[in-house]
Amino acid sequence: MSEPYGPPEPGGSTQQPYVPEPRSGAADSPGPVGDPAGPHPKPGPSTPPAARGGDRARPRPAVPRWLSRLPYAFVLCGVAAGLIVVATDHFRRGSMLIAASVFIGALARLVLPESQVGMLAVRRRWLDVFLMTAAAVGITLVAFVAKGTSG
Length: 151
Known about the structure:
By secondary structure, this protein is mainly α. It has helices at about 65-70, 70-85, 90-110, 125-145.
């Protein structure tokens, strides 16, 4: 084998591997003699800071985390209030309150960006909006079609 790392792979690169040039022990080079990394730049205003693995800059969210949970919390509170109204023997009013809160959740999913809808974002935007709107319409139809108390 004449190749230092084995025969070249078919379709692979034909470039030669990097071999550092030997350095002379001149006084103007700041690195140690035989340093394969080459000359090191002197720190100064044009030298970028050294990259550290643990100090990666994370992108800051557009809104605080608690604010992105508000639409979901609003829908949950509306559904809970509707269930309480249904439990007090006002089926249609409670059902309409549930349907309205689900529809408001669909509007929030449609209008707000992905970073602000929190747990209302389950699937693609159009599918979430369609399913929540269909649920709100279905609950409204059931509220008006079902026999029972008129309140």
